[in-house]
Design a protein that fits this description.
By secondary structure, this protein is of the alpha+beta class. Helices cover about 30% and strands about 25% of the residues. The protein is elongated, with a radius of gyration of 18 Å.
Length: about 170
């Protein structure tokens, strides 16, 4: 089986999680208003001969970690998401990953649906697109870091504890 070929990944820390690529950050920006999401928290261990998930980690067991778990804020519908560039559409490894994820969902009896999202399906609003393009055109890493900090401050998920007075925080 031919595996995916990736370019060098740049870790982007935002919203209290790390994104492996600009494409993943773009996807998170596109869904943040309608969905809550988890990033890289679900590892699926499976036997590569059968693609059946397992709890037992042995020498022949492999791990697959989908990119996102998202849940709609209103309908509560959940999706296990794999993000890929359109160039990987016909790659046989996507079929294997889909089978592994669907086997895992059935095995755990979750209400999730596995979905592959390609880069050309990710849509941003005009304002989000302008910010995203500004970041992508910034060649200097310090400019990029400032943009990520600005975005992180805008969507900071840290909630102050209700158990302390403001003076104790």
């Amino acid at each position: 089986m031919k595996s995916f070929k990736y370019r060098k990944s740049i870790k982007i820390i935002n919203w209290g999680c790390a994104f492996d690529s600009i494409l993943e950050l773009k996807y998170a920006i596109s869904i943040h208003k309608e969905y809550e999401f988890l990033r890289s928290h679900i590892s699926i261990y499976y036997d590569p001969r059968t693609n059946i998930p397992t709890d037992y980690i042995r020498a022949n067991i492999r791990r697959y970690t989908p990119d996102f778990l998202i849940r709609h804020k209103i309908s509560k519908q959940a999706f296990l998401i794999e993000i890929k560039p359109r160039a990987f559409e016909d790659n046989e490894q996507l079929i294997v990953r889909k089978e592994i994820a669907e086997n895992y969902i059935r095995w755990r009896k979750y209400d999730w649906t596995f979905k592959i999202v390609f880069d050309d399906e990710i849509k941003l609003s005009d304002d989000e697109e302008a910010q995203f393009n500004r970041c992508n055109k910034s060649f200097r890493q310090t400019q990029r870091k400032l943009w990520f900090k600005e975005l992180n401050d805008l969507f900071d998920r840290i909630v102050r504890s209700p158990y302390f007075r403001p003076s104790e925080i």
